[in-house]
Amino acid sequence: MSKGIKYIAIGLIVLLLTGFLILSLTIDSIIKSNIEKVGSEMTGTMVTVGSVSVSPFSGQGTVKGLRIANPEGYGTEHAIVVDDLFIKMNIRSLWSDLIVIEEVVATGPAIYVEQKLPGNNLRTIMNNINEAASRGTPTDSEMVIDHFLLKDGSVDLYTEIGGERSARVEMAEIELNNLGSDNGRAATEQVIQQIADRVIEQALRSAMRSGTEQLRDVIQDLFD
Predict the structure, then answer these.
(1) Alpha-carbon 42 to chain mean position
(2) Selection from 6, 25, 39, 50 nearest residue 139 by Cα
(3) What is the DSSP string of 176-213?
(4) What pLDDT does 142 receive?
(5) Would you call 204 exposed, middle or buried from its count of C-beta atoms within 10 A (0-12, 13-18, 19+)?
């Protein structure tokens, strides 16, 4: 191989590697910023992500360090923490008006319930999400999630009702399918609303099982 051809080959390899790196960083940045922006707008709190790493070829990857902060007026820093989130998606859909996600698996989420009279932090967040979804579609995009799974979750309860106390319980597995595609395409906000409603309901039911009789009555009222 002549020196000229060798240098051209090396240059092409460097160019391809650089292009791959730029594409990967672009995809990761888009996913991270979208989660933080839309999440914060809908929950009415600060939503942050530690890092995102998704392959531009397979569409598979991870979201690390997802944090949903508590609303103002609550003592604990976070309402929901998910350190390990697996996603598989159609990468091309990031540049379209329909985001297609094949699978989302949240492993070991930690959910913190801070109960006060007459409500709690999770119900406040859910109310914010419902209001955001009812306002329309500021993201101007739609979303489909074929399969959502939450497993190995835990719920920590903090309350001063009936005396200051705390408790931790395991959370039942949650599995949802065909989100956003049951009745045609759905707005991104509506899909997030569906997931949040199920997760928060399950977390509150778990908290209710761990509380005193007085606390169970208070939380039960939220489902009536």
Answers:
(1) 11
(2) 39
(3) EEEETTBTB-EEHHHHHHHHHHHHHHHHHHHHHHHS-H
(4) 87
(5) buried
Give every CB contact of residue 141 below 8 A, 6+ residues apart in sequence. Answer: 97, 98, 99, 187, 188
Closest residue by Cα to residue 104 from 68, 60, 67? 60
List 141's β-bridge partners, or say none: none
Task: Write the pLDDT tens digit of every residue in 29-60.
Answer: 889 999 999 999 999 999 999 999 999 889 99
Q: Classify residue 65 as exposed, middle or buried by CB count within 10 Å of its CB (0-12, 13-18, 19+).
A: middle
The answer on pLDDT for 186 being more than 80 is: no
- Tell me 18's DSSP state: H
First-to-final CA distance of the chain: 78
| Domain locations in the chain as residue ranges | 3-223
User: Chain-wide mean pLDDT for the chain?
Assistant: 83
Among candidate residues 117, 92, 114, the one with its CA nearest the CA of residue 102: 92
The model's pTM is 0.82
Residues 168-178 have a mean pLDDT of 93
> Which pLDDT does position 136 carry in this prediction?
63
